[in-house]
Amino acid sequence: MKLILLGPPGAGKGTQCKRIVDRYGMTHLSSGDILRGERAAGSDLGHRAQAYMDSGALVPDDLIIEMMIGAMKKAGGGYVLDGFPRTVVQGEALDAALSRAGERIDGIVNLVIDDGIIVQRMTGRRSCPKCGAVYHIENLKPKVDNICDTDGEPLVQRKDDQPEVVANRLKTYHEQTAPVLGYYERTGQKIMTIDAAQAPEEVTAAVFAELDALSDQVG
Questions:
Q1: Among 2, 13, 121, 126, which one carries the catalytic annotation?
Q2: For a FRET experiment, which of 79, 93, 145, 201 has its CA 20 to 30 Å from that of 24?
């Protein structure tokens, strides 16, 4: 299967992507991970994207499209696209590239969740700067307040979990990425809408039920 995973920041896309990949033997294609890999490898794409990344600007659509199409070709079999497409322009380019190759996306997993829940989830996260362990001030507290259970390091709030940053990320999602779903609705794509406000295991069960049925259809 060839899938796209859509959803706002904090919806649990990373967790569900890993579980989908493990169950169905697919390749996880994360635009962020691939972009960082291209940069670390010193590739032409990495060099071209570096100036944008260093300045905090969005990497232009044409570079992201070129990078992701290349990654999809290397993947060969089934894959889950995570973080791509982020805009309608990227969605149109993806469909055009797949059409030229005689392929298509089989379905879209759309994680839906209220902004208020996302804000609570993300702004309440605390991380260990040493081992990377993640806690939550309400749902996953350390044994000692604000101290990592593993190595005793003081926990920190990552910059991208600060309230103003979370608000900006949600604003960007609603303005740029949410319309991608409308594009796929207009083109008749198979969309599987999942309530991401549930516990992660319940979300996974709902995703697997949809994908098992889709797998039977696409062979």
A1: 13
A2: 93
Q: Is 71 a member of any domain?
A: yes
Out of 23, 73, 104, 158, the active site residue is: 158
Burial bucket for residue 77 (CB in 10 Å: 0-12, 13-18, 19+):
exposed
Encoding tokens for residue 105? 């996306």
Active site residue 39: no
Quote the number of domains for the chain: 1
pLDDT tens string 28-70: 998 888 888 888 888 888 888 887 777 656 788 888 888 898 8
State which residues form the domain around 184: 2-113+165-218
23 catalytic, yes or no? no
Residue 169 among the catalytic residues: yes
Among the options 86, 104, 141, 171, which is catalytic? 86
Characterize the bridge pairing of strands 125-127 and 134-136. Answer: antiparallel
User: In this structure, is residue 159 part of a structural domain?
Assistant: no
Q: What is the CATH number of the domain that holds 183?
A: 3.40.50.300
Q: What is the pLDDT of residues 119-157, one digit of tens each?
A: 999 999 999 999 989 999 998 999 999 999 999 999 999
Cis peptide before 163 (omega within 30 of 0): no
pLDDT digits (tens, 9 = 90+) for 75-112: 878 999 998 998 899 999 999 999 998 889 999 999 99
| Residues 64 and 52 sit within 8 Å (Cβ to Cβ) | no
125 as an active site residue: the answer is yes
